[in-house]
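Hello everyone,

My group is preparing for a crystallization screen and wants a predicted model to guide construct design. The compound we'll soak is zinc ion. Before spending weeks at the bench, it would help to have a computed complex in hand. I've included the protein sequence and the ligand's SMILES below. Output in structure-token form would be ideal because that's what our pipeline reads.
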Amino acid sequence: MKHKYDAPSAEPLTLKDFGWSAHFQAQLGDDDAEAMPLRVVAVHRDALEVAGPGFEGRVAPLAPDDDGDVATVGDWLLAEAATQRPVRLLERRSVFKRKSAGTGRRVQLIAANVDTLILVTSANQDFNPARLERYLALAREAEVAPLVVITKADLAGDVADYVSAARGLMPGLLVEALDARGGEAGRVLAPWLARGQTLALLGSSGVGKSTLVNTLSGQALQATLGIREDDAKGRHTTTGRSLHRLTCGAWLMDTPGMRELQLIDAAGGIDEVFEDVTQLFTACRFSDCTHANEPGCAVQAALASGALDGERLKRYQKLLREERHNSESIADARARSRKFGKMAKGVFAQKLKQREF
Ligand SMILES: Nc1nc2c(ncn2[C@@H]2O[C@H](COP(=O)(O)OP(=O)(O)OP(=O)(O)O)[C@@H](O)[C@H]2O)c(=O)[nH]1
Ligand SMILES: [Mg+2]
Ligand SMILES: [Zn+2]
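Reply:
Good plan to model first. Here are the tokens for the complex, ready for your pipeline.
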């Protein structure tokens, strides 16, 4: 049988081609000898779209595990070989999550088992240091290497300014500028697109994520649509997440443009992104320095000398405050739902008793 992901007349794909590694292999026990590993390439309301050596198609979703976790795009599942019925979700190598948009106190999984997070922004009004820093913290919290791709370089006269502004957002950050519609995108991104690698595209609507998928795959896989002229905002063309195999053998995930990225449990990631700031703290005279007006404060000294940008410091403090608030409210909600779960169990037990007597 021929599969979508097999190149014509090429060898059939192996697990490694789908992104399998020792991390997943180590989770297989003796009972799993017959099991079939499958990768989730899209999540639908009532089915998971999966692919692996020898099978691709839709399977029933897995029931949520004890933590309420469900499969997300990029996940690895073990399925019964004969029926392809998923039986177990494998522990992830990396996962991106955020607080659900709106007022809900829920966690939303964005993607799993990603090697490189491509933060896509455009050389226009979309470019926003505070937003990029959030995405970077998301990547570093998941221990995933980030890459900033600035699209629409062809439309901007001052693209070098965007590149240098982006480079300042995290020590050692890699940044590329390109025309997402053009053939050079493949050449520029080639170092990240090795066989079996998984990359996810995240960014606002209209920055060219789907355009990149199409350019890099050489096919019109994803719909794209022009942006609003007045404010450069996109029209939320892509509505679901999906993982695509490129002919070079890398996997590229397209995602819907994000309106908002509220971080949770990401304090470590934030500190890594702002390492230039947090490093200063160790040089303050007092270990409990608030960096406001104490003598011997290294932060105040760096601000005075111009070594530290006041705006970056403010963004760091704001992001940390916000992350703390989100994480606490999610933790509260979890505790409440556990308490409710216990109470419901208690009531249930009571009812059983009443019936018995
Ligand atoms: N000139 C130019 N146009 C681009 C570039 N990248 C994307 N576009 C155009 O920008 C528009 C939006 O691109 P999409 O690929 O649909 O954007 P998206 O990020 O997928 O947007 P959502 O699916 O809404 O999140 C389309 O008209 C693209 O042709 C680029 O590098 N240069
Ligand atoms: Mg899109
Ligand atoms: Zn200080």
